[in-house]
Automatic annotation (TrEMBL):
One of its GO terms (molecular function) is metal ion binding. Residues 1-86 form the Peptidase M12B domain. Disulfide bonds join C2-C81, C41-C67, C108-C133, C119-C142, C128-C161, C155-C166, C193-C205. This is ADAM metallopeptidase with thrombospondin type 1 motif, 2a. GO terms for cellular component: extracellular matrix. SMART domains: TSP1 (SM00209). GO terms for biological process: extracellular matrix organization; proteolysis.
Length: 761
C-alpha cells in the first residue's frame, strides 16, 4: 500500500458496475487475497463477495467477506502513509439514492456506449431485476451485464428501483448517517454505531469503537512471564501430532503476529499456533516491556506508562535518558580446564542489557547459562553438541549460535535475574578464552561487589590492513596506510569499536605512479560483420574510445595499462564507428505462393500456385534459376457414387447454414441446397480482387464443369471448417453424418469404380 510505485490500480471504466472492479483491485492494494484462494472463504464467492476471483457482485448483492476483514486488519496498522489526510476533499454531497440522477437510458449508455437505450422489444414483469439495453439500429438484440439498475432509478409513476424491485420509496430506504451509542464499561469499554445505524450509503461513525485504560501498573513479581503462563495452561490438554507436550512461550518473528498465542514444544521444538489471541495486557514483545496487546492489536505505551507516549528508555534502561548514566563493561576471561564437568567462568548481574559473549577460537567445550535465582541450567544442560537456537527464560529472549564449534550467546535484556556463564568441559588440559560486553546503569554497577576484569587496553591493537588506491593513475600520486583493529589473542581482525579507546596511529604516505602521463589517443577495434549481404540497408560498426596509457606503479616491471578518458582529451577527429557496406542490388530469385485447394472434393484433381521473380526491376528474365512448377495433380478421397435425391432436413434452406456445404456429411444431407448454391456461384463469378501479393503474375480460374449426372463427383473443394452450429439438432445430424461418412468411405470408393465400369459398358 505504501510503496511509491506500486500503490495504484488501473481499472477500465465500463459503466457503473466498474465500481466493483475498482473496489476489488483496491482490496488487493490493501493486502486482501481472493476469497477461496489460500483462505477458507470459498463459500462467500457465490454470495457476491467483492474479493471473489471473478467479480460477480451487483448493486443489490455485494459484501466484504470475513477473510477480507481479517486480512485488512492484519496489515492496516503497518500502513503509516494512511495516518494523515494529504488533501481537503470538498466533494459535493451525494444524492439520497444514486438512481435519482440517472435514467435507465443513461445507464445503458454508461454500460455499452452511445446509441444504447433501455430494451423495449420484450416486456418484463420486473424491470428492476436486470437492466437490458439495445442499440437504436438493432432494437431486437438486447444485452445485459447481469446487474440491476441503480437504486432510485425511476421505473414507473411514483415508483423507483430498490434492491432489485420496483416499489414506492419510504423514508427508511433513504440515506442515513450513523451516530455513536452510549459507552459501555469503564476500564475497557466499547460502543456500537447504531444510534442510528448507517443505511443506504450513509457515512459510518467517526472515531474508535473501543477505549481502554491501563490499570494495575505495578511491576509484576520477579521471575514471572505472562505469555509463558498462557502456554503452560495447554500442557494437559493440547495434543500435537498425536502426543502431549510441555509448551514454552514463543515470540513470532512477524511483529503483526505477536498478539496471537504461539507456543513451542520443549520436546520437539515445533512451533504451534493456539488459534487465539493473547490475554489483554500481555506485553507485545520481550524487547519492549511497556507496549501491550489489546484485542489482538499491539498498542504502543511509553516507558512513562502513558498510551501513545513517545518516551523511551535509553541503552541502559533509563526512561527518557540520554545514555549519560550508562556504563559499558568489557572484558575477557581465560580459564584452564583440568577436570570434566561444568566450570564457572563469570557472573552477569541483574539489570544488564545488550549482553554479548563470544569464544575466541574453536574449542571442544560447550558454553552454558544458569539462572542464579532459580538454579535452573536453562541453556545447554546436556553433554551432546547443541545446535543454534532461540529460547525464552523467565521473560528474557536468549540467542545461542554454534558456528563450527565457535559459540556465542547474546540478548538485549534487560536481565530480570543474575546469570552464571559456565563451560561444559569435554576435554581436559585445555584453555577456554571468552570475551564479554554488556551495558548497565552506574547505580547498579556501583552497588555490585564483582571481581569481573575490566577490558585490558593492550588486548586489541591497531594494525596495518592495506594501502589505499593511488590518487592518480600517472604523473605522481599518493598512497596512504589503512589501519584495522586486530585482536592479539589470535591475530584476527575485528570491528574497530574494540579499539575505540586506543589512539590510532597517523597514516603513512608514499609516492605512486610517478611515470609521465602519455597523451590520450583514439583507439579503434575491428569492424563487425555487415548487417546485410545486399540491398540498401547494410551497416557495419566498430568500437572507438579515447584511451590513455598508464603504469601499475611497479617501476621494476613497468606494466602498462590503458584506461578510458573523456573524448575531449583526444585532440584529433574521432574515427568513424559506423559505415555503409554491401550496398549493391540483390540477385533476382523465384518466389512461390501457396498451393490452391484441390479442384475436386473427391477423385483426381489439380492444384495451382502463383510464381514470381523478385528483383529490383521485376523482370522474369533476370532470374537465372529454372522457373518452379505452377500446376500439380492432387488426389482427393474416392467418390461415393451416391446421387442427390433432395434435402433431408427443413433447416437446409437456411442461408446462414450454407457455409457448412464444404463438410461432406452436411453436403450429403443438404445436397440439393448446396448444389443450388454452387450453381449460382458458378454462373455469377466474384469480381473481388485476388488477395495474393504477386501482382505481376496474371492468373485465371479454371472453368467449373457442371454435369447433371455427376454433381456429387466434381464439387469445388472448400477449406474444411471446424465450426459448430448453435442449433443442437443440426449439430447432432452433422456429427452422425460425419461418423457414417468415415465408415462408408472405403466401401464407397470401390462401388464408385464399379459404377463407372458399368457406365462405359
Amino acid at each position: 500500500m505504501c510503496h511509491l510505485h506500486r500503490s495504484c490500480v488501473l481499472v477500465i471504466e465500463d459503466g457503473f458496475s466498474s465500481a466493483f472492479v475498482a473496489a476489488h483491485e483496491t482490496g488487493h492494494v490493501l493486502g486482501m487475497e481472493h476469497d477461496g484462494e489460500a483462505n477458507d472463504c470459498e463459500d462467500d464467492v457465490e454470495l457476491g463477495s467483492i474479493m471473489s476471483p471473478r467479480v460477480q457482485a451487483t448493486f443489490h448483492r455485494y459484501h466484504w467477506s470475513r477473510c477480507s476483514w481479517r486480512e485488512l486488519h492484519q496489515y492496516l496498522q503497518t500502513y503509516d502513509c494512511l495516518r494523515d489526510d494529504p488533501f481537503n476533499h470538498d466533494w459535493p454531497a451525494l444524492p439520497q439514492l444514486p438512481g435519482f440522477q440517472y435514467s435507465m437510458d443513461q445507464q445503458c449508455r454508461f454500460d455499452f456506449g452511445p446509441g444504447y437505450s433501455l430494451c423495449t422489444a420484450y416486456t418484463t414483469l420486473e424491470p428492476c431485476k436486470q437492466l437490458w439495453c439495445s442499440a437504436y439500429n438493432n432494437p431486437f438484440y438486447c444485452k445485459t451485464k447481469k446487474g440491476p439498475p441503480l437504486d432510485g432509478t425511476k421505473c414507473g409513476p411514483g415508483r423507483h428501483c430498490f434492491k432489485g424491485y420496483c416499489m414506492r420509496l419510504t423514508p427508511d430506504m433513504l440515506r442515513q448517517d450513523g451516530g455513536w451509542g452510549t459507552w459501555s464499561g469503564v476500564r475497557f469499554r466499547t460502543r456500537r454505531c447504531d444510534n442510528p445505524a448507517p443505511a443506504n450509503g450513509g457515512r459510518t461513525c467517526f472515531g474508535n469503537s473501543y477505549e481502554f485504560q491501563l490499570c494495575s501498573q505495578e511491576e509484576c513479581p520477579p521471575l514471572t512471564d505472562f505469555r509463558e503462563d498462557q502456554c503452560k495452561v495447554w500442557n494437559p490438554f493440547f495434543e500435537h501430532e498425536g502426543m502431549k507436550h510441555h509448551w514454552l512461550p514463543y515470540q513470532h518473528p512477524d511483529p503483526d503476529e505477536r498478539c496471537s498465542l504461539f507456543c513451542q514444544s520443549k520436546e520437539t521444538a515445533a512451533v504451534v499456533s493456539m488459534n487465539r489471541m493473547v490475554h489483554d495486557g500481555t506485553p507485545c514483545s520481550y524487547s519492549d516491556a511497556h507496549s501491550v496487546c489489546v484485542r489482538g492489536e499491539c498498542e504502543h505505551v511509553g516507558c512513562d506508562g502513558q498510551i501513545a507516549s513517545d518516551q523511551q528508555v535509553d541503552r541502559c534502561g533509563v526512561c527518557g535518558g540520554d545514555n549519560s548514566s550508562c556504563k559499558i563493561i568489557k572484558g575477557n576471561f581465560t580459564r584452564s580446564t583440568k577436570k570434566a564437568g561444568y566450570l564457572k567462568i563469570l557472573e552477569i548481574p541483574k539489570g544488564a542489557r545488550h549482553l554479548l559473549i563470544q569464544e575466541f577460537r574453536e574449542t571442544p567445550h560447550i558454553l552454558a547459562m544458569k539462572n542464579q535465582e532459580t538454579g535452573h541450567l536453562f541453556l545447554n544442560d546436556e553433554d551432546e553438541l547443541p545446535d543454534s537456537r532461540v529460547l525464552i527464560e523467565k521473560g528474557v529472549v536468549w540467542e545461542y549460535i554454534n558456528n563450527e564449534e565457535q559459540e556465542s550467546i547474546q540478548t538485549t535484556g534487560p536481565l530480570k535475574y543474575g546469570v552464571l556463564l559456565m563451560v561444559s568441559v569435554l576435554m581436559r588440559e585445555s584453555n577456554v578464552t571468552v570475551s564479554y560486553t554488556y551495558i548497565i546503569q552506574d547505580r547498579l554497577w556501583s552497588s555490585l561487589e564483582s571481581n569481573l576484569l575490566q577490558e585490558d587496553a593492550i588486548f586489541y591493537e591497531w594494525a596495518l590492513k592495506k594501502w589505499s588506491h593511488c590518487s592518480k593513475p600517472c604523473g605522481g600520486g599518493k598512497q596512504y596506510t589503512r589501519f584495522g583493529c586486530r585482536r592479539k589473542a589470535d591475530g584476527k581482525m575485528v570491528h574497530r569499536m574494540f579499539c575505540s579507546n586506543i589512539n590510532k596511529p597517523r597514516a603513512i604516505s608514499r609516492n605512486c605512479n610517478s611515470n609521465t602521463c602519455s597523451s590520450p589517443r583514439w583507439v579503434t577495434g575491428e569492424w563487425e560483420d555487415c548487417s546485410a549481404s545486399c540491398g540498401q540497408t547494410g551497416w557495419r560498426r566498430r568500437w572507438v574510445s579515447c584511451q590513455q596509457v598508464t603504469s601499475t606503479g611497479q617501476e621494476e616491471k613497468e606494466k602498462k595499462q590503458q584506461r578510458s578518458v573523456h573524448s575531449k582529451l583526444c585532440g584529433e577527429d574521432r574515427p568513424e564507428g559506423k559505415q555503409t557496406c554491401n550496398r549493391f542490388p540483390c540477385p533476382a530469385a523465384w518466389r512461390a505462393g501457396p498451393w490452391t485447394p484441390c479442384s475436386v472434393s473427391c477423385g483426381n484433381g489439380t492444384q495451382e500456385r502463383q510464381v514470381a521473380c523478385s528483383s529490383p526491376e521485376g523482370l522474369v528474365q533476370n532470374c537465372s534459376e529454372p522457373r518452379p512448377i505452377t500446376n500439380r495433380s492432387c488426389l482427393a478421397p474416392p467418390c461415393s457414387g451416391q446421387r442427390c435425391r433432395g434435402d433431408r432436413s427443413v433447416f437446409c434452406r437456411m442461408e446462414v447454414l450454407s457455409r457448412y456445404c464444404s463438410i461432406p456429411g452436411y453436403r450429403q444431407m443438404c445436397c440439393k441446397s448446396c448444389n443450388e448454391i454452387n450453381s449460382s456461384n458458378s454462373s455469377n463469378p466474384s469480381n473481388s480482387s485476388n488477395p495474393d501479393n504477386f501482382s505481376n503474375v496474371s492468373t485465371t480460374n479454371p472453368p467449373t464443369t457442371n454435369i447433371r449426372g455427376q454433381q456429387n463427383h466434381f464439387v469445388p473443394r472448400m477449406p474444411p471448417f471446424r465450426e459448430r452450429t448453435q442449433n443442437k439438432r443440426i449439430q447432432q445430424l452433422l456429427n452422425e453424418r460425419r461418423r457414417k461418412d468415415l465408415l462408408r468411405r472405403s466401401d464407397g470408393s470401390r462401388e464408385g469404380r464399379t459404377d463407372r465400369k458399368q457406365g462405359r459398358l
